[in-house]
TrEMBL record:
Organism placement in taxonomy: Bacteria, Pseudomonadati, Pseudomonadota, Betaproteobacteria, Burkholderiales
Swiss-Prot/TrEMBL keywords: Membrane, Transmembrane, Transmembrane helix
InterPro entries: Rce1/LyrA-like_dom
Name by which UniProt lists this protein: CAAX prenyl protease 2/Lysostaphin resistance protein A-like domain-containing protein
A Pfam family per the record: Rce1-like
Coiled coil start-end: none
Domain CAAX prenyl protease 2/Lysostaphin resistance protein A-like: from-to ranges: 149-238
Sequence intervals crossing the membrane: 29-48, 60-80, 108-130, 142-163, 175-196, 202-222
GO biological process, one term: CAAX-box protein maturation
Length: 246
């Protein structure tokens, strides 16, 4: 019997990974319930508050960014605790045995390609549904100004890129693959949950983020790790903070 304490998941494709569960199915169910609950709360809050009620003063924004950073890492802690009981490690998602300069170069290339694909797909979707008008972003009501705000935004972007790829493309996608035996269902499932988790941003943003989740899920499956996805995710969020992408 294979020792789950030191699994070898650094394959070229997640479809070839062992179908051993990363955590209990109950843990995954709790994950989904909490995610849907938070989505419902944020969506209801968004319905009763206009964009003018979003944090707008420098102090409010800084506190809000710090709060979101903490929430991102709480998600990772939740995943870590569930996996620890099954003697699995989050490190598996990074493909540590395949990390060489050559492979990192490929990660950068794939991240750049996915960034371009996502940019044009997002522009096309927004243009189709909103005639080019970009949806409001409750998390970024204003461009960060000042050293502290810029630093916090970069830290938030790093946290979101790392944590959300660990949680959705690392844990959830592989766990759903193990549960269902179908990689396609797993990619679609994590993308939908990833998208509706941003329900407070409106339907157009949700659809855009679902599409982004699908692309990142396919990338994670193709590469067998989440490194390229993290690079793309972090770069996108940082540039969005300065209005370069949206």
């Amino acid at each position: 019997m294979k020792n789950l304490a030191s699994p070898d998941l650094d394959t070229a494709n997640q479809a070839d990974a062992p179908r051993a569960l990363l955590a209990s199915q109950r843990h995954t169910l709790h994950f989904m319930v909490v995610c849907l609950f938070l989505t419902a709360i944020s969506a209801l809050n968004g319905m009763h508050n206009s964009t003018t009620d979003s944090p707008s003063t420098p102090t409010q924004l800084n506190l809000f960014y710090a709060f979101v950073i903490g929430m991102e890492w709480l998600w990772v802690r939740f995943v870590y605790k569930g996996m620890r009981k099954y003697r699995r490690s989050i490190v598996e998602f990074f493909g540590r045995h395949t990390l060489t300069f050559k492979e990192f170069g490929k990660d950068v290339a794939y991240a750049t390609l996915v960034f371009a694909i996502d940019y044009f797909c997002n522009a096309g979707l927004v243009g189709l549904l909103q005639h080019g008008a970009q949806p409001a972003n409750a998390v970024l009501p204003a461009v960060p100004v000042g050293l502290l705000a810029v630093t916090l935004w970069v830290c938030l972007s790093l946290s979101a890129g790392v944590c959300e790829e660990i949680v959705f493309r690392g844990y959830l996608q592989r766990q759903l693959t193990a549960i269902t035996g179908r990689l396609g269902i797993a990619i679609l499932g994590q993308a939908i949950l990833f998208g509706i988790g941003h329900g407070y941003e409106g339907i157009v943003s949700v659809l855009s983020i679902v599409l982004n989740g699908l692309v990142l899920g396919i990338l994670a499956a193709w590469r067998g790790n989440i490194r390229a996805g993290i690079l793309m995710h972090v770069a996108w969020d940082i540039l969005a903070g300065f209005g370069i992408v949206s």
